[in-house]
Amino acid sequence: MAPATDKERILIVNDDPRMRELLQRHLCSQGYDVVTTSSVGEATRVLVTRPIDLVITDLEMPKASGHDLVKYLRKNFLHTEVMIVTGYAAIREAIAAAQAGAAEYLVKPFTEEELFAVVQKALGKRSVRQIGKTQAFPLFAFATFTQSSFY
Amino acid sequence: MNHDFYVLSRRLLHFANCELSRLAFLRQVSKLIIDFAGCDEVELRLKEGILTYGWKFRLRPREISAFEILPGAHNPDGRIIPCSHEDAILERLCREVLNGRCEPSSPVLTRHGSFWTGDTEMPLDFSPATDQPAPAVIGGDYKSIALIPFAVNDENAGLLHLKSRQRQFFTPEQIELYEGIAQTLGMAVAVRRAQSGLRERIKELACLYGILEVAVRPSLTLEDILQNIVNLLPPAMQRPEIAAGRINLDQRSHTTANFRESPFKLAADIVVGGERRGNVEVAYLEDKPALESGLFLDEEQSLIDAVASQAALIIRRKETEGDRTKLQQQLRHADRLATIGQLAAGVAHELNEPLANILGFAQLAKKSPGLPAQTEQDIEKIVASALHAREVIKKLLTFARQMPPTKIRVNLNKIVDEGLYFLESRCAKLGIQLMRELAPELPDITADATQLQQVLVNLAVNAIQAMPQGGHLTVKTLAGDDHVLLVVEDTGAGMTEEVKGKLFAPFFTTKDVGQGTGLGLAVVHGIVTSHGGVINVESAAGHGARFEIKLPIVEPLEN
Questions:
Q1: Residues B157, B151: contact at Cβ < 8 Å?
Q2: Of B361, B387, B393, which has the smallest distance from its Cβ to A22's Cβ?
Q3: CATH number attached to the domain at B200-322
Q4: Under CATH, domain B2-195 is a member of which superfamily?
Q5: What is the 8-class DSSP label of residue B56?
Q6: CB contacts, 8 Å: B359 with chain A
Q7: Helix or strand holding residue B149 (H, E)
């Protein structure tokens, strides 16, 4: 296993190899540590082996969907943020996912500047949450977060 | 004598067929009878409706008295025309005989109800149904008189009055003959009435048929139809040469060329769906048309009533047709927009995937170290084109209402202030004076602020592009009872009717290729419609354009 660095680690979950490559290369160019997987199942296996700061997932995928992943993460990995990358067709679902606990969503097609801005925003929410986690009632803090993500 | 009687009878019937006016007919008939009887004066009375017309003809001197409406008659207002007759007893007798009110058993009457005497100085012992004291003396210049009633279609309708200065001028045989003549006269009058009635009916039918013909011609507008109807009215009247017509509908009038106001007129209201919308009028333009040729007939009033109700039906049908055509056009338009919208949305979604790759990889390629300057520029162009394509797709999706609107309480004034903020510098650079006239205390509306801002910006950008040489751009807000108005006005190139017709159609643009997507106003249309609003455009080529957007304060329930 690679030694832990202070680089923020991002996991990309997407069944489209072009989109995976695109996201990976853009994010690597910004110095993030990027891991890619092509399915939710694969992603869950990665998540248990190493700490991940942000998951960037597609919504529509064969077998388990991005929604399932959001639910799984919110239940099991409170430190990990999740962000949706989707097309206009799924914009309503993306909003639903955001309401279910995804920090941000990004609509395709996007420029690299837009990608970086949204990623930073999502990671920013993670640091807010970690402050919350140090408090006595982490569940209460989570509820607050979920609510704020509605708006 | 008998031969003469037959000749006279034939002539009487002949005049009945000559389409003479009532006056001419009575004149001809009087001449015939006075020549036949050889008496000094003949007087004819004819009842028509509530009026009694009279005609006097004297043999020596050959003097024709004026045609008059006789005493005892009522004028059209129902007032009794005062009696001017010198000899009240004779006049009374005339009326009693004419109306058949004398006792048939009275000794001075024949069995056919005629009265005659050979000496008017003799006291008369007759007892009419009224309380006239008997006996009475007629007196006067005429010593012999005969009053012979005649029936028209079995009704007492006329009186033949023969007078002579000679005593004992008539014999009982002659009186019997005159009674026969009087009955022939009655038949002649009946024939004349039937014929003139028929002529009037034909004229009325021709008028109604004409209206029907006009009404079913689909190419005619309501205005054309009403003008045609008004022109059909005078020929349907008894005296077309002095008749004029007018149809008033709402605040507008259609008249025949000769129309002017006249006290002699018929009118009928046009009532459409229970509401009085105007009337149909026919006027006689002569000062005293009533006396010679009679007033309007009852049938003419019925005709005008029929014309008015026909006109009402036509108006209602035309208006319904108009509404239906408009509705169909709106439906077709909406349907077309919806179809285009769905198709466009489907294509747009499909295009987004490859576009995401084009944009993303182009940006990655641009970051490769050591790229030749030209390649870098080329890649920059790919990125710019991809962004343009993305913009088109986004607008298409907004147009197809695939972007969910978020409606909140907003104030149009705030939206205008924010929207224009970004346009101020652009206007200043192009020499365009930007003016805002915002209504104070404008009520809030429920709307998607971002979408309304897009409406404003799209309209303002179009206005700016229409004024390359500078000009005035005015943005106004106004408050109505249940709506607010956004007005964007420019002093630019304006547009032709043709352009105006296609204005909101997707992909319609007057701008150069690459300058506009042809979706700006389609999007405006989509947004305004989804807010339950209406767009009104006023423009003429070279005279600027004015877009008025009316948004309801209270959203309709279905939204």
A1: yes
A2: B361
A3: 3.30.450.40
A4: GAF domain (3.30.450.40)
A5: E
A6: 109-111
A7: strand B144-152
Residues belonging to chain A with any Cβ–Cβ distance to chain B shorter than 8 Å: 16, 18-19, 22, 25-26, 29, 87-89, 91-92, 95, 108-112
Q: Do the chains contact at B349 and A87, CB–CB below 8 Å?
A: yes
CA distance A87 to chain B (A): 7
Lookup: tokens for A138: 């982490």
- For testing the chain A interface, which of B342, B349, B355, B359 should be mutated: the one with the most A CBs within 10 Å? B359
**Inter-chain touch A108–B356, beta carbons under 8 Å:** yes
B384 chain-A contacts, CB cut-off 8 A? none
Residue B390 and residue B348 in contact, taking contact as beta carbons nearer than 8 Å: no
Distances (CA, A) of B43 to B221, B474, B498, B506: 56, 86, 77, 88
User: Do B2-195 and B405-552 agree at the fold level?
Assistant: no
For B398, the closest chain A residue by CA position comes to A88
What CATH superfamily is the domain B405-552? Histidine kinase-like ATPase, C-terminal domain (3.30.565.10)
| 151 residues of chain A, pLDDT tens digit each | 444 457 899 999 999 999 999 999 999 999 999 999 999 999 999 999 999 999 999 988 888 888 899 999 988 888 899 999 987 666 677 777 777 788 888 888 999 999 999 999 999 887 665 554 443 333 333 433 333 333 3
Domains of chain A, each with CATH number or no CATH? 9-112+120-148 (3.40.50.2300)
Asked whether B57 and B41 are in contact (CB, 8 A), the reply is yes
The answer to whether ipTM exceeds 0.85 is no
In the predicted model, residues of chain B with pLDDT beneath 50 are: 71-85, 128-130, 290-293, 556-559
Encode pLDDT of B92-149 as tens digits.
777 778 877 766 566 677 888 888 888 888 877 655 444 555 567 777 888 899 999 9
d(CA B135, CA B127): 9
Say which of A26, A29, A88 has its CB closest to residue B349.
Answer: A88
Can you tell me whether residue B330 is helix, strand or coil? helix
In this complex, is the C-beta atom of B387 within 8 Å of any C-beta atom belonging to chain A?
yes
B150 touches B185 (CB < 8 A): yes
Q: Chain A contacts of B387, Cβ < 8 Å?
A: 111
Nearest Cβ partner for B386 among A16, A19, A109: A109
